[in-house]
């Protein structure tokens, strides 16, 4: 289901939207934290729009910004925080209307059973901790939360996105990680979660835009914001913007 950048670029500069035949393809670039939700929503959209195929590529928001800056084709773009769109070149960002569609929060994850007995952010200064890279949304959120809590974590690695960060804990390569609550929930059979107190937690707002001007680009973006989108997002642990 994921579309590699090279393959996407091979579609050509004019191949951002629907194909020439009866079947149409909607190309979606989405933040890694949306993997479970957008996989479900892509299939749901296809069911109510026969002949339309939704191809979703998941990556760190910073990677998506780089892809777009190098003319990667896209119909819909959904990022993990409202800072990410600001990194786009001005000529690309012009005319794009970003709409909030979900919110997320942070949670500490540990290997199943919490063998290092992590109880809060302060313990991340004492255990082998993995964080998202500082330039990606989950890394920005983690930095803000740790700054609020006045904690200097013992970081053994910074990973490219939230899924890679979570994977380090699942593999037993770290004693703790700070990830989105939705990702912690998706891996609950493999990790244990430790709540981050509200006073130190950070809420991120996820924006979406129809990157191309096709009817299906606008349609899928609206579908994500509609009743089915809200149901799926909330079912995967996301909050909804006020």
UniProtKB/TrEMBL annotation:
Q: Which Pfam families match?
A: SBP_bac_11
| Signal peptide interval | none
Q: Name one GO biological process term.
A: molybdate ion transport
Q: Which residues bind molybdate?
A: 33, 61, 162, 180
Q: Which domain of life is it from?
A: Bacteria
Does the record carry Hydrolase as a key word?
Answer: no
| UniProt keyword terms in alphabetical order | Metal-binding, Molybdenum, Signal
Gene Ontology MF: a single term: molybdate ion binding
Give the similarity note: Belongs to the bacterial solute-binding protein ModA family.
Q: Which NCBIfam families match?
A: modA
Q: What is the name of this protein?
A: Molybdate ABC transporter substrate-binding protein
Give the organism the record lists: Dermacoccus abyssi
């Amino acid at each position: 289901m994921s579309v590699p950048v090279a393959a996407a670029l091979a579609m050509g500069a004019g191949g951002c939207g629907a194909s020439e035949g009866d079947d149409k393809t909607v190309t979606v670039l989405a933040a890694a934290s949306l993997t479970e939700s957008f996989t479900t929503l892509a299939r749901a959209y296809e069911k109510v729009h026969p002949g339309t195929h939704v191809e979703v590529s998941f990556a760190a928001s910073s990677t998506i910004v780089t892809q777009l800056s190098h003319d990667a084709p896209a119909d819909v773009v959904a990022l993990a925080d409202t800072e990410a769109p600001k990194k786009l070149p001005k000529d690309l960002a012009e005319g794009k209307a970003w709409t909030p569609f979900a919110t997320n929060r942070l949670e500490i994850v540990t290997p199943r059973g919490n063998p290092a007995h992590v109880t809060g952010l302060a313990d991340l200064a004492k255990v082998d901790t993995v964080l998202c890279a500082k330039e990606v949304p989950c890394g920005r959120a983690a930095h803000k939360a740790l700054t609020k809590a006045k904690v200097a974590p013992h970081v053994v690695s910074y990973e490219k996105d939230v899924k890679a960060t979570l994977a380090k804990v699942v593999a037993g390569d770290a004693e703790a990680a700070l990830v989105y609550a939705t990702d912690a929930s998706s891996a609950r059979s493999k990790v244990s979660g430790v709540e981050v107190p509200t006073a130190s937690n950070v809420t991120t707002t996820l924006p979406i835009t129809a990157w191309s001007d096709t009817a299906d680009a606008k349609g899928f973006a609206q579908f994500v914001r509609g009743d089915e989108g809200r149901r799926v997002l909330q079912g995967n642990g996301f909050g909804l913007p006020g």
